[in-house]
Amino acid sequence: MMRRILIIHNPTAGKQRTKLLDGVVAALRLRGLAPEVVTTERPEHATELALSADADLVVAAGGDGTINEVVHGLMTRDGARPAFATLPLGTINVLALELGLPPDVVGLAGVLADGPLIPVTVGRANGRHFLLTAGAGVDAAAVKVLSPGLKKMFGQAAYYIALVSALFIEGNTVFDIKIDGAMRRVSSVIVTNAARYAGDKVVAPNAHLSVHDLHVLIGLRHGRWNLMRYGVAYMRGVLPYLPDVQIVSMQRLRIAAPAGKPVQLDGDNRLTTPVDIEVVDEPLMVASVSLTN
Q: What is the DSSP string of 233-289?
């Protein structure tokens, strides 16, 4: 049977990236498929569309924020749930890297048309689902700084600029967290479902989308100087190997204090502390080529 495909497109991706979408749609039609393309008009519109989608496969065509909205919509549906896929139209699409998606329109169309469906773990924070990351402190402060204009101007370097700026905002904050019942005091909290974070840098070598857990990176030393070291180590690709950075496999995590600090989910600030993060029991089926670390 041919898949019924709904593509939810975030038009803020820009004209150049939209050409990729047009090419994939044309390639699907050459295969005899008739994908429906719907453009989002406002925040959370992608969630609404995913909630009501009558399709076998729902595709998020945009960046990490679009992915989050579509995944949250799919995971909160009653009854049958369509499978999920992504077209990487954002500045950097970590999910596309983790799934090993091909960069060309023919290859991407093949994934949507008949790529294997694999079970992928989903996280949940205070009821809001996320697929890739959740974080507080410098992580969330960097998200606030990271405007679309900054990403358009500097590309991946924008993430580094945002991290440096965030040091002055949250550089001295210390968090009280509980990981599967064990209390810790830490300077940074990044929960990840993937090996990579904010680009092609690997921060959790043992994290894997198809394994039923999440990983949390915690910085054990406090203050701006140590957070600056962590930022430099991230840029150099050696963050997970620092002796004062721990990577812990987890099922549940609570960021208890201080209260009122922003929490990012998949690259957008959506919550504030305190927040409870957990692994969702049921996985999401995702169209893929293969999972790679």
A: HHHHT-GGG-TTEEEEEESEEEEEESTT-EEEETTEEEEESSEEEEE-SS-EEEE-S
The rounded distance, in Å, linking the Cα atoms of 187 and 293 is 27
Q: What is the pTM of this model?
A: 0.91
Band of the pLDDT at 292, cuts 50, 70, 90?
A: very low
Strand 5-9 and strand 36-39: the pairing is parallel
Residues in the chain: 293
Residue 218 to residues 176, 246, 248, 253: CA-CA distances in angstroms? 11, 5, 8, 12
Report which of 38, 63, 64 is spatially closest to residue 51, judged by C-alpha positions.
38
Q: What does the pLDDT look like over 111-138, one tens digit per residue?
A: 999 999 999 999 999 999 999 999 998 8
**Are 88 and 94 a contacting pair, CB within 8 Å?**
no
What's the token pair of residue 185?
A: 């005091």
- The whole-angstrom separation of Cα 273 and Cα 173 is 13
